[in-house]
């Protein structure tokens, strides 16, 4: 599953090759709550995990990044700021992009 991350500044869309995708091992993740982010402003991005995920969600157990599909050396780490085991959600902070 792949997600395009659209970048806009003051309503103007910018061309970018930054894509988000879920690794094949992440079979329990099924949604991301944003379709676009601002490259200048920090933005919270939420991920919902399938309710059948067999482990308790703990923030410190996860690391999430966005990697460009056209330049794999361009990686933006996202800070996992919250995990809600009862709702099976992870909240990350996207810190911007060039």
Tell me the major beta sheet: 7 strands, antiparallel
Domain module tally: 1
Summed over residues and divided by their number, the pLDDT gives a mean of 75
Q: Which segments are poorly predicted (pLDDT under 50) over 5 or more consecutive residues?
A: none
Query: Which structural class best describes the helix and strand composition?
Result: mainly beta
Which range best describes the helical content: under 10%, 10-25%, 25-40%, 40-55%, 55-70% or over 70%? under 10%
Widest sheet, order of strands: 1-4-8-9-10-7-5
Write down the secondary-structure element order: EEEEEEEEEE
Q: Indicate the proportion of strand residues.
A: over 45%
Rg (CA only): 14 Å
Shape: globular
End-to-end distance: 24 Å
What is the number of beta strands?
A: 10
What's the number of helices? 0
Summary of the model, kept short:
The chain has one domain (2-94). It is built from no helices and 10 strands.
